[in-house]
Amino acid sequence: MIGAITSMLDNFLGRGSAAVTVPPMDGALKPNNSLEGLPPGIAAKAPGNLVQIDGAPAWSDGADVVSSSGTVVLTVGAPITALAVRNDGVIAVAALNGVLSIFDKDRNDITPAWTRRPDHVTAMSFGSKGEILFCVGSETNDPENWPKDLMEKNASGWVGAASVETGDIFVLATDMAYPSGIVQLPDDTVLVSEAWVSHLIVLGPGAKRTIVLDEIPGYPGHLSKSSGGGYWLSVFAPRNPLIEFVLREPGYRSAMMREVPQEFWVAPAYASGESFLEPLQGGALKQMGILKPWAPSRSYGLVVQLDGDFIPMRSFHSRTGGRRHGVTSALDIGGTLWLTSRGASEVLTFLPDEKGESR
Asked: Which SUPFAM superfamilies does the record match to this protein (predicted)?
């Protein structure tokens, strides 16, 4: 009852969850041009889901798993939405058609009969007991349709665990606002990024949820471990006051979704500035040919390094005027960081310790 009254007051006064303000990028999140200044990377159509296979980085690109040498490691029947590799070489692949496949180290299909269909999987990793930990972003929208899920303000996602040997699937948490990143912690609890509420949570015993990082100024996605301890967080799209305002206007939002093509919605995206029909352009972004430093953007490039207590230590950016936006995954191999940029259709690599400007 108290929560309902508080929500009504917030909506009336425009505060709390009804506020259209966005947390500032400051401190460890202070904007820089680290990603934009990197040399050309490896071209890809739709890169994501970085993993390590046979000691080398690999990523998904459409329906293929591609290694850094350009070799196609694996191909499945539909675009890949999530990918994970176990220490013994077993590969788990989730595809857009709702199929979760398992391959042994020799690439033989050893997929069991699952007890539940794990559809719309957005992220996966292996747990300490060899099980698959995975996120289902939404029950109604597939991972390529994430802007629609945000505009519908859904919270139908869930987190589960799957046994590779038996096919048993267990639900760990439900009613989540687009979980899109998952990694197991040293104490066997699970760290999950919940995109639409812009925070990270730890799932403990009894599905207890503890928020460990809140008010992220973007939509958090892929999580991976850092070679020096801590974690890498990929933020695949930015928040801004205009989008926050649209999310609080159901009439306008419904009409926009009904009458306007999705690529032109007032909504975040992997890339922007490619069409004169986009909602944010012209005088809203530039004055006398110069990009406004406060210009709102539908896309952004951001990866954040967190310490063991989930406190941001430093970050690497591609700002509003850049093109290396939509960072969908990060992989740290021996201190070398690999990134996938959906906005630039590119796989990037660099040594974070040499980018002193982002400390």
From this structure: Calcium-dependent phosphotriesterase (SSF63829)
Determine the straight-line distance between the first and last CA of the chain, rounded to whole angstroms: 45
What does residue 12 show for φ and ψ, rounded to 5 degrees? -75, -40
Residue 222 token pair: 């892929």
* Residue 33 is assigned to a structural domain of this protein: no
SS3 of 280, please?
Answer: coil
- Phi-psi category of residue 113: left, alpha or beta, with phi > 0 → left and psi -120 to 50 → alpha: beta
**Which 3 state secondary structure label does DSSP give 281?**
coil
**How many other CB atoms are found less than 10 A from the CB of residue 78?**
14
222 within a domain of the structure (yes/no): yes
pLDDT band at 18 (very low <50, low <70, confident <90, very high): low
Residue-by-residue DSSP string for 124-144: EEE-TTSPEEEEE--SSS-GG
Q: What are the pLDDT digits (tens) for 25-73?
A: 889 999 999 999 999 999 999 999 999 999 899 999 999 999 999 999 9
Instruction: Tell me the whole-structure pTM to 2 decimals.
Output: 0.92
Positive or negative: CA dihedral 130, 193, 349, 228: negative
Give residue 358's pLDDT: 39
Q: What is the mean pLDDT of the chain?
A: 90
pLDDT at 294 over 80: no
Domain count, the chain: 1
Q: Does the residue 168 lie in any domain?
A: yes
Any domain includes 154: yes
Give 109's DSSP letter: B
CATH number at residue 311: 2.120.10.30
Output the 3-class SS for 18-69: HCCCCCCCCHHHCCCCCCCCCCCCEECCCEEEEEEECCEEEEEECCEEEECC
Q: Which domain holds residue 181?
A: 41-238+298-351
Q: Judge whether residue 128 has pLDDT over 90.
A: yes
Instruction: For 198-224, write each residue's pLDDT tens digit.
Output: 999 999 988 789 999 999 999 999 999
